[in-house]
Amino acid sequence: MHRMMSLVGMAMWVALVVALAGCGGGEGPGAGSANVSGVLTGALTGQGDRPAALTGKITFSSRSRTGWNVDIYVMNADGTGITRLTHSYSGEGYPAWSPDGTRIAYGAQHGIYVMNADGTGKTELTDSMVDSEPTWSPNGAKIAFSHGSGTLDICVMNADGSGVTRLTGNPACDWTPDWSPDGGKIAFASDRTGNADIHVMNADGASVTRLTRSEAYDRDPAWSPDGTKIAFWNDRTGDGDICVMNADGTGVTRLTRRAAWDAMPDWWGPH
Length: 271
Prior knowledge:
By secondary structure, the protein is mainly beta. The protein has one domain (2-38, 55-254): 6 Propeller (Neuraminidase). Helix content is 8%, strand content 36%. It contains one helix and 20 strands. The protein has one helix at 2-24, and strands at 34-37, 57-62, 71-76, 83-84, 92-97, 103-108, 111-116, 123-124, 131-136, 142-147, 153-158, 165-166, 174-179, 185-190, 197-202, 209-210, 218-223, 229-234, 241-246, 253-254. The strands form five sheets. A four-stranded antiparallel β-sheet has the order 1-2-3-4, with no helix packed on it. It starts with a helix and ends in a 17-residue tail after the last strand.
């Protein structure tokens, strides 16, 4: 019976991941999403390198460790001390640290939840299986997230789940939001122009501006700590690569050049 419930939960979660991936025309983040809290001085690229001076914590979702369920884990930034935080028969992913590192927001089968950093105090914020990809405002007062099925919109709510407001609304997909360090803007991916490009808008949804103009797919924007640049994922070369650009969309530079899929950048550093 438990195995059957796990399969049903996984199916529901995979359906959401597929919906997200369908908007971008590429592979979705799925169960491998990770979010860094603390100083991460090197990239864990899977090439066998483990920088010595890594501190802080990384939260991530994993399917392989439990076989059927997708759950949230936390580990030290050097890969040690892996601890499972959630134990469910559904799927849970897209974990995001609160700015002060005390809480983790995440997407689950029935909506967006928040819990303490040790996995206690789980609280439901939204009651919809099509809510996902939460991201905290820099002051920790609000959470932006993607909402929808078939098409996606960016919404924002208070950190306690109240005051849900839709910021975008068009017959396209808007997803993977990321707050600017000053809290004034939100970068996001959108296919409103025919394929996925990086856009930016004011935190209230006004003044949407397209930043990238590529025939490839651009998604997963991540602001630099000083707010002057944005890193993002693209498939300009057929493989997923990480690029960086100025916050106004100029000066696009490709950072990774590997025959592999590099995606979901997350930028941390002193403000």
